[in-house]
Amino acid sequence: MKYYGSCLCGNIEYVVDGEFDRFYLCHCKYCRKDTGSAHAANLFSSTALLKWLKGGNEVKQYNHNNSGHIKAFCPNCSSALPNMQMDGKLLVVPAGSLDTDIETSPNGHIYLNEKAVWDNKLELAPQYDELP
Known about the structure:
Elements: E1 2-6, E2 13-17, E3 22-26, H1 29-35, E4 40-45, E5 49-54, E6 60-63, E7 70-73, E8 80-81, E9 83-85, E10 90-94, E11 108-110
Parallel strand pairs: 3-11
Antiparallel strand pairs: 1-2, 2-5, 3-4, 4-10, 6-7, 7-8, 9-10
């Protein structure tokens, strides 16, 4: 399967050729900081191939304190983008950067011990189709 993705401004485009092994919603403090949200939604693959279609040479990476917590992003719009981790053995793809629909649901929530205190029963909050 081929999965296409891009950043918000459209300056960077990519394709992932292959399948994802896992899909996790990570609540660790680093993922909350770099997404500005309750959790990151990342797909992982040890076999899929990443190819930059446009702007790949512009992609920036940040490795927080050389901890292995790596975020790749567009320097223009700051959108999260795929990156290789574990010495190139693991492809990490932010699910929200995909333009192709994926047919899988998350395998689970991880790092719940670092979950934000306000991240509780969010599914019970009022829901709107647009900004109210």
